[in-house]
Design a protein that fits this description.
- The structure is a homodimer of 206-residue chains.
- Chain A is mainly α and 206 residues long.
- Chain A is elongated, with a radius of gyration of 20 Å.
- Helix content of chain A is 79%, strand content 0%.
- Chain A binds chain B through residues 16-19, 21-22, 112, 115-116, 118-120, 122, 125-126, 128-129, 133, 157, 159-161, 163-164, 166-168, 170-171, 174-175, 178-179, 189, 192-193, 196-197, 200-201, and chain B through 16-19, 21-22, 112, 115-116, 118-120, 122, 125-126, 128-129, 133, 157, 159-161, 163-164, 166-168, 170-171, 174-175, 178-179, 189, 192-193, 196-197, 200-201.
- Chain A binds a DNA duplex (18 and 18 nucleotides) through helix 3.
Chain lengths: 206, 206
DNA sequence: GTCTATAAGAAGATAGAC
DNA sequence: GTCTATCTTCTTATAGAC
C-alpha cells in the first residue's frame, strides 16, 4: 500500500480509538514509519486527513449501494430466495448483518470514529444516521417486506416489523463495540431474538 | 448555585457538546464568569473537573437506585399497578422512560458526554453500559416480568421480551440525541412500537 | 477567591537541505 | 518524499498581588 493510503489507514485506527482531538499528527506519522513533516507532503493538514477518510467512506458506500441496487433490481432472483425463507434463512440474515458490521475492520473503525465525532457537526451526525439507522432499515425493510408479501410473515405494518427486527441488532452491536467481551453472550441473544421474532410474526404456512 | 457547582454544570454542558479534549479550561471559566486561573482554586486541574462530574453522577444514580429499591421492595403496590396493566399503561411506561431520558437536562448531557468518551477507558464504557443498557433492562424486565406472571403478557422468555420492548426505545433515543428534529416522528414510532408489542405478546385476557 | 502576568510545554505546521 | 531544525500558536497551570 502506498504512503498516502497508509496514512489514512493508520489515522482511521487512531481516530476510532481516541477521537480526532486526541490523536497527534506525529503519532500517525510514526505508525506509518515517517516523520511528521513528511506527512504534510501527502495532506495539507490534519483536518485534510480526516476529510479524506470521510470521502473514502462515501466512495466505498456508493459502490456498495450500486452493488445492492443491482441485486435489488434483480427482483426475480431475490424474491425467489425470500419466498421460501425458513427460520434458518432469517437467522442467517440477522447474523450476517451483525457479524459483518461488527467485525469488518474498516466498518468497525469507521463506526467507532463516527460514534465519537457524531456531535461535532451535523454532517457527521447525518452520515452516522444514514449508515447505521436509515440504510439498514431501508434494506432490511425491503427484504422483510418481500417475505411478508409472500405471506410468510404476517404484519400490517412493515416499518414497525423491521424496527422489531433491526433495533435489537443495533442495540447488541453498540454493546459489543463498547465491550468485546460481551460478544459471545450477544450472539446467543441475537439468535434468541430472531427465533422469537419469527414466532411473533409467525408464518402462515411453512 | 455556588461557583464550584456552576463549574461542573458548565463543564458538563461543554463536554457533552464538544468532548473533553475540545473544551478549554478558559472556556469553562468564561461561562462561569471568572478567569481560568480562578478555576484552579476550585479544582486541581481539568481532569479533576471531569472526575467530579462522574462522581456526582454516581451519587445521583445511587440515590435513584435507592428510591427505586424502596418501590421495588413494595411489591404489593407495584404488582397491583401492573396486574391490571392496560395498553395505555404500557404506552405510559415506554413514553415516560423515553421522554425522561431524552429531555432531562442532566441525563441528556451526561449521556452525550459518555457517548463521546466511552472508548477512552473501560470505566466510562462500563458506566455507559450500566446506565443505558443493563439497568434499564433489569428494571423494565422486572416490571414486564410481573405483568407476564399475572398472565397479561404471554412469553416463555422474559429477557427477550424485555429486549423487544427496550431495544427500539434505545434505538430511537440515540437517533434523537443525534438529530432532535427527528423527535416528533420518533414519538409516533414509539407509540406504534408499543402498540405492536402489546399485540405481539398479546394478553390472554383483558 | 479573583485577578494579571507569565511560565512551561505541547502540537500543528513550515523552511530548506538532501 | 523524507529528513532536521524551527516557528507559532494554543493551552494548561502557577506565582503572587489584591
Amino acid at each position: 500500500m502506498d504512503t498516502k493510503k497508509r496514512i489514512l489507514d493508520e489515522a482511521l485506527t487512531l481516530f476510532s480509538e481516541k477521537g480526532y482531538a486526541n490523536v497527534f499528527v506525529g503519532e500517525i506519522a510514526e505508525r506509518v514509519g515517517i516523520k511528521a513533516p513528511s506527512l504534510y507532503k501527502h495532506y495539507k493538514n490534519k483536518r485534510a486527513i480526516f476529510d479524506a477518510i470521510i470521502d473514502e467512506m462515501n466512495q466505498r458506500f456508493e459502490e456498495q449501494a450500486k452493488a445492492m441496487n443491482i441485486n435489488g433490481t434483480d427482483a426475480a432472483a431475490d424474491s425467489k430466495i425470500y419466498m421460501d425463507m425458513s427460520e434458518e434463512h432469517l437467522l442467517k440474515l440477522g447474523r450476517e448483518f451483525f457479524l459483518y458490521y461488527l467485525h469488518d475492520d474498516y466498518n468497525k473503525r469507521f463506526r467507532k470514529m463516527l460514534t465519537i465525532e457524531q456531535f461535532q457537526d451535523k454532517e457527521l451526525a447525518d452520515i452516522y444516521t444514514k449508515l447505521y439507522v436509515d440504510d439498514p432499515m431501508t434494506y432490511q425493510g425491503m427484504l422483510l417486506g418481500m417475505v411478508a408479501a409472500s405471506g410468510l410473515l404476517k404484519t400490517d405494518n412493515v416499518a414497525i416489523m423491521t424496527l422489531h427486527f433491526y433495533a435489537p441488532i443495533y442495540y447488541l452491536l453498540t454493546i459489543c463495540d463498547r465491550d468485546p467481551s460481551r460478544e459471545p453472550k450477544a450472539l446467543e441473544t441475537l439468535d434468541e431474538h430472531i427465533k422469537q421474532f419469527n414466532r411473533l410474526y409467525g408464518r402462515t404456512n411453512k
